[in-house]
Design goal:
22 strands, 3 domains, SH3 type barrels, about 30% strand, five-stranded antiparallel sheet, endopeptidase fold (from Nostoc punctiforme), six-stranded antiparallel sheet, about 15% helix, alpha+beta, globular
Length: about 350
């Protein structure tokens, strides 16, 4: 059954979940998921929460909890910095359309999952967090395409369409979304989706790979050019998509787009890769910042781009930006650098 693109939302009562959903969403909510089972993200970007969400979500978070989601409306609802900063206490990470997750726990309409491909010392299966069950599908059709060509969205976001003529928009998906190629028509590519059959996407918005060995080399120039695509994109705590990044979600996603998987969070990112001395930092290296004048816990990461500058997703009040490394408030907390790019 085709999902309706008209969100049917109701007011959250005392911060509870939506009580009105599309008929398909309701059916997915009722589906039983058991620990150890795998499922796939069935919305453009799912958000993983610290708990099962029923007691902390706000009315304005409704666009992030439905199926389909509306990440642009959710962001617009949080124009106020303090409203956006509130998320810091409640979100874990995000996962883009088609991402595989492993079910860890179930609680009513919510499930705790481990997000595949997001390394963390917290769980060997992937980054853990709670999400609405309605945003997952257990249809494993993507497994049938594991060894086939695939697309990776290279634009900030891109539209999937219902027909080859690209007249009927289906879903706006994020940078780094990976979907199997069914047929390449030249300017348009037909792709398989987790639970909605085949859709079409403009080739100008994607990179097409025959296999994972075809990822381009993660050179400093390539990394920097990719990072600059997101200048001006508003920060989002836990964000890993073209709809919004947090600091480590930004650096994680940059390397992911070149087939390199690094830890999801800044702390583990600062302990992996190749250590780089301060006087040997090169463009493409990750820069880390820690409390207690750089001697405490790492809490921020940026990427060096040369000429004393770095690019970063800073905080809830700002957007992806380029600033000098020696900016007051940053340089005092500089704690080291790591290299993940290919020399």
């Amino acid at each position: 059954m085709k999902k309706t693109k008209n969100l049917i939302l109701s007011l959250c009562v005392a911060g509870t979940l939506l009580s009105t959903m599309t008929s398909q969403s309701l059916a997915k909510t009722q589906e039983e998921l058991t620990p150890g089972e795998t499922a796939y993200v069935d919305v453009s970007v799912s958000t993983q929460w610290t708990t099962n969400g029923r007691f902390q979500v706000r009315d304005i978070d409704a666009p992030s909890l439905s199926n389909p989601v509306d990440p642009r409306q959710w962001s617009a609802n949080m124009e106020d910095t303090e409203v956006r900063r509130w998320l810091t206490s409640y979100l874990e990470t995000q996962a883009v359309y088609g991402t595989k997750v492993t079910i860890l726990e179930e609680s009513g309409d919510w499930v705790k999952v481990a997000v595949d491909g997001q390394p963390t010392p917290r769980n060997s299966l992937g980054y853990p967090g709670w999400m609405p069950k309605r945003q997952l599908t257990t249809d494993d059709r993507l497994e049938n395409y594991k060894n086939t060509p695939f697309i990776m969205v290279s634009s900030q976001t891109a539209w999937l369409y219902d027909g080859k003529a690209l007249n009927d928009k289906f879903m706006e998906i994020s940078f780094n979304t990976r979907l199997p190629v069914v047929k390449d028509f030249g300017d348009v590519v037909m792709v398989a989706t987790p639970d909605d059959g085949n859709k079409f996407i403009k080739k100008e918005d994607v990179a097409v790979y025959q296999n994972e060995n075809q990822f381009p080399k993660a050179t400093p120039e390539n990394l920097i050019n990719t990072a600059k695509k997101f200048l001006g994109l508003r920060y989002l705590w836990a964000g890993v998509s073209g709809f919004g990044f947090d600091c480590s979600g930004f650096t994680y996603s940059l390397f992911k787009s070149y087939g390199i998987t690094i830890p999801r969070d800044s702390g583990p990112q600062s302990k992996n890769g190749k250590e780089v001395k301060k006087d040997e930092i090169q463009p493409g290296d990750l820069l880390f910042f820690a409390s207690n004048n750089g001697t405490g816990s790492v809490h921020h990461v940026a990427m060096y781009i040369g000429n004393g500058l770095m690019i970063q997703a800073p905080n809830a009040a700002r957007s992806v930006e380029i600033i000098p490394l020696n900016t007051p408030g940053y340089i005092e907390e500089f704690s080291g650098a790591r290299r993940y790019w290919e020399e």
